[in-house]
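Appendix B, example 12.
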Amino acid sequence: MDAPTDVRLPDGLTARILRVDDVGDVVAMINVCELHDTGELMWERADMLADSSTDGFDRDADWVGVLDGDEVVGWAMVVHVRSAWADVRPSHRGRGVGTWLRRWTETRAVAAGAPRIGQTLDDALEGSQRLLRDAGYTPRHTSWILQMDHEERPADPSPPDGVTLRPWRPDDTDGAMVMFERAFAEWPDRLPSTPTTWRAMTIEREGFVPEDLVLAVEGAEVVGGAFILDADEIWVDKLAVAREARHRGVARALLTTAFQRSFDRGYRQTRLSTDSKAGALSLYERVGMHVTRSFTHLAIDL
């Protein structure tokens, strides 16, 4: 384990590389933190399993847990080379655990050859953001969670002429992956995604069913898609439209599909996230969504 050499954990606490068997306990601890900090639950087991299955993630090096006896009281994970997640159980904050975890992510990123490492923090967590800023981290981009409320059943989606919406089929995999990757590659400073990573985050995600990946198909070509998660609410995890098919209502039709599914499953809201790199905030606001939370990605050059 690449442990930091300039800080130590408090007496009585230990650290070790996590195992897949730890995922349930870690997610439970993360949700204790989320409920304490924001009143919402944002993580589930499938999220962590998907992240730890992406191409390049080393399960023997890229995540760590801090334990008090057998209890997980802190954790950190470095994903996609230069991004980190970290949490400390509220009962163990103010003792240097967060500093140890931050330095662990930096040490791990340096070992992996990353040019920088960053964390995305809720803007409501001013104290946590201040700790990162004091350590030399600076804001790099903003992200938001948006919500669509629907007390009545949304109208049926209206894709443009020639475009059909349908669930994913196995023979769609390559076309869907290429469409998503080309669309997301337009974001500035985005690392390319490999087939292994794309599959881990979508069709190989724990609990996936074909209806989770709604595709917009024109002729034999995939021109748009939405990856929709049901995690006690409907969440649009990914949304993309091919450049040549934009401004025709494809994105609106895909979103409406998600809104309608949400209502039909008994939910009265649908959510998604976007960030300033994607430039899609105005699109979501035009269809009636509104911002409920904002986040800042703070990073440090290594």
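The CA atoms of residues 7 and 301 lie 20 Å apart. The first helix runs from residue 23 to 37.
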